[in-house]
Write a structure and sequence with these properties.
By secondary structure, this protein is mainly alpha-helical. The protein contains 8 helices and 3 strands, in the order ααααααααβββ. The termini are far apart.
């Protein structure tokens, strides 16, 4: 069997490609310093002033709220949302912004349209919207509308850029 000779040009090209990919993604320490959570990105606006941090495991937190307020209480419902949100947003949850996004999902066609486009159930589309929000790709503006954004520190941006409005603030439900 003939021995394979390594092509020095090909080997050099692969080595250069790996080096360039490392440069584009930054050094190991730079990658470690990149924000992992929306909180770390410091989004602007009134919806991002307060961050909640549920303590303990999901079961411990729910048991504490259920014992104090009851399983069917508003506090228990809020805690269920908080625990769900923390899986998406990390340890600090922008409760006002996350709830506003849920209101947009419930009261507009955004999630339905996204679900049809992606070929997924509406609940999965809702999860995708929260994931994009948690990464800073979507933000809630001060007027309650949802915008596609570019976080500060991305490329040459030194501030957040609101690129395209995705949904107006939902109208309040009216009593008939």
């Amino acid at each position: 069997m003939a021995s394979k000779k390594k092509d020095p040009v090909s080997r050099r090209a692969k080595k250069n490609a790996r080096r360039d990919a490392r440069k584009r993604s930054g050094t190991r320490s730079e990658r470690a310093l990149r924000p992992r959570y929306l909180y770390d990105l410091e989004p602007p606006g009134i919806y991002y002033r307060e961050w909640d941090t549920p303590k303990g495991t999901d079961e411990e937190a729910m048991n504490k709220v259920n014992d104090a307020f009851g399983r069917d209480s508003d506090a228990a419902l809020t805690m269920r949302f908080m625990l769900e949100y923390r899986w998406t947003y990390g340890p600090r949850v922008p409760v006002m912004a996350a709830r506003q996004l849920d209101q947009i999902v419930v009261r507009t066609d955004l999630a339905t349209d996204l679900a049809q486009t992606m070929g997924v159930p509406p609940e999965e589309a809702r999860e995708h919207l929260h994931t994009l929000h948690a990464r800073g790709v979507l933000l809630i503006a001060d007027d309650g509308s949802l915008w596609m954004t570019v976080p500060s520190g991305t490329g040459t941006n030194d501030h957040w850029v609101f690129v395209e409005k995705k949904a107006d603030a939902p109208l309040e439900a009216t009593a008939d």
